[in-house]
Structures are given as C-alpha cells and as structure tokens.
Amino acid sequence: MPNDANQTSITWLLFALLTVVSWGVYGIFLHKGQILMADPANGRYKAFLFVGIAYFLTAILAPLAVLIANKATWSMPGSAMTWSLVAGIVGAVGAFGVLLAFGAAPKPTVKYVPVVMSIIFAGAPIVNAVVALALHPPEGGMASIRPQFFLGIVLAAIGGCLVTLYKDPVTPAPGSSGGQPAATTPSTSQAGSTH
After folding, report:
1. How many CB atoms lie within 10 A of CB 27?
2. Disulfide check for 33: which of 47, 117, 147, 181 has CB 3.0–4.6 Å away?
C-alpha cells in the first residue's frame, strides 16, 4: 500500500512537470509558427487559427474518446458546463494575448519571447493565488495564512521583474551590428577621405 500512495504522489508531480515543459515551450513554438507564416500583418492570427485546431484535436476529440471508452454518462450540470466554458474562454484569450504581445514587442521580437513568457508565467501564479483566496478564503481568515505563502508571491513577482529587466533583449549577438550602422572610428573616416 505505501508504494501505491507514493506512486500516486509522484504521478501528480509528473503530470504537473509535463505541463511545465509544455507551457514552457509554448511561446517559443507559437512565435516560430507566426514567423514561418511569412505574413507580417496576419501571421499571428493564422498561427492562432492552428492553435484552435490543436485545441479541437486535444481538447475535444481526446476527451470524447476517453468518455466513450469509460462509458461515461452525458449528464452535466449547467453550472459545471458554464464554468468549464468560461475556463476555456479565458485560456484561449490568454493564448491570443501571447500572440498580441509578440506582435507589439519591439524588433527583433524573438529576443522578447522569453521576456513575454516570463511575465506571463510569473504573473499567472500570483493572479491564481489571489483569485483562489477570494473564492475559497481560509477558515481562520487571512491571518491564518503562513508568511511563506506571501513570500512566494513576492518572489514570483521579483523573479518576473528580474527576467524582464535583465534579459537584455536589445544586445546584439557577438560579431553582429544588431541592425545598427557600424560605428565609424577616426582612423576609418580618415582612411576613407584619403582615397
């Protein structure tokens, strides 16, 4: 029995890590799809269309198959369907917001992909914690919450800020001019004038 309990605790962690990896590469892959559309004006919307197709494949067909395989009943309370639909809408709005952020980011946008995603992944847990507390307040009130919880929120905010401020998205790669004209040194300008 202890092994089964241990297996269960490890399983939820593995699934959580699967989500960490999936969402960790989400922004990178999404931006790559947008760029490969080769349409600066509408590439992000075309990429989002395929995100929707992917949602259809993974969030409609897969659960339908599981429900059919499990011989589940099709009885679903209206409130449950409503909240589940709202959850899907805010998830899709968030995905669309990622694309809009990429579109509004300074050029070269690829340098800002990690910054955008860091803001999202640092900010989302904070929003989650605040909303969860509002919807399900602890029995002993706010005073019963351990200080480490609030420290975690502060550290998440600091982490997002540090990545945003110090990712240095405008530093060109070594050996490149980064899109800026090469600086003219006195010796090169003089050499140009003598020829």
Report:
1. 22
2. 47
